[in-house]
Structures are given as C-alpha cells and as structure tokens.
Amino acid sequence: MSTKKIKLMADYQCYPLWDIEKVGNIDPNKLPISAVLKKHLNLWAECYDEILVIEEPILSGFKNKMEALAFEAQGQFLWRQLQQELGDTYEVFYFSHLTSQLLEKNEIEDLIVYPKAQRMNVYVEEVASVGSMPLS
User: Fold this and answer.
1) What are the domain boundaries of the chain?
2) Beta pairing, strands 25-26 & 90-96
3) What share of the chain is helix, strand, coil (3-state, %, to 5)?
4) Which of 13, 130, 29 is nearest to 77 (CA)?
5) 65-86 and 35-49 helices cross at what angle (nearest 10)?
6) Could you tell me which residues come within 8 angstroms of residue 55 by beta carbon, excluding any fewer than 6 positions away?
7) Which among 35, 123, 116 has a CA at the least distance from the CA of 74?
C-alpha cells in the first residue's frame, strides 16, 4: 500500500488539509482521526479566516508577531497530532506561514516553534488568545 501525502495549510475559507497529489482540500471529517483533532483543525482554520479582510484583502493578516507565532505554534502542534493519529499510511507535510514554505518532517523539526513556546510557558496563553482552542 502506498503512503498518502497530505499537507496541513491554512487558507481562507477552506479546510486546512490538502491532497498533495490531487487538486482540492480535504474535509477533516473524512479522515480516520479523533473527533477532538477534527474540531481543533476546524478551529485553526476558523482562526485563519478571522484575519481575512474581505473588502480589502491586502489588509489581511495577523495583528502582531505574537499572534503569528501563536498561530504557527498551533499549526505545528496540529501537524504532530495529525501525523501521530494517521500513522504510517499518511505522510503529512506542513505549510509554514512564518517561512512561506512547504516543510517535510525533518524540516519542521528544525523550525519547530511548539516546544520552544511550551518551554517559555506562553504557548497555552497565546493559543488561547488566538483561537480559544483547548489543547486537551
């Protein structure tokens, strides 16, 4: 059986999961993952939708660097959970909004914001302020 390749990437008014080999995004409800992770993925996508200024898209974006870092930390946390729950049948890539690059596992490990933020004890507070997303 071949490994399916998907990427975790927030985009306005879309599901945050994309099939790398086909066009289109993937509804998290169609994947064999926990209800909690499905909810968190949808909340993360909603957080990204909230920064869209539909009348003037050029003005869209995070208010400050802390919001952007918190969103990135959230994404990296979700990437880890997604890869863990999907196991070896999927290879999960991550699009970093900090670097504007599609990252593979080893590249994400080099960039990872999540453990750094957790060590500084800001991750939980920042994630909560960005999207009120529970972590457990």
Assistant:
1) 4-129
2) unpaired
3) 50, 15, 35
4) 130
5) 150
6) none
7) 123
- pLDDT at res. 129: 47
Task: Per-residue pLDDT tens, the chain, 136 aa: give them.
Answer: 688 999 999 999 999 999 998 888 999 999 999 999 999 999 999 999 999 999 999 999 999 989 999 999 999 999 999 999 999 999 999 999 888 889 887 776 666 555 444 434 443 444 444 444 444 3
Quote the tokens at residue 99. Answer: 């670097």
> Cα separations (Å) of 87 from 31, 32, 41?
12, 10, 17
Q: How far apart are CA 43 and CA 45, in angstroms?
A: 5
Q: What is the pTM of this model?
A: 0.77
Residue 131 CB neighbour total at 10 angstroms: 20
Residue type, 43: L
Helix, strand, or coil here: 97?
Answer: coil
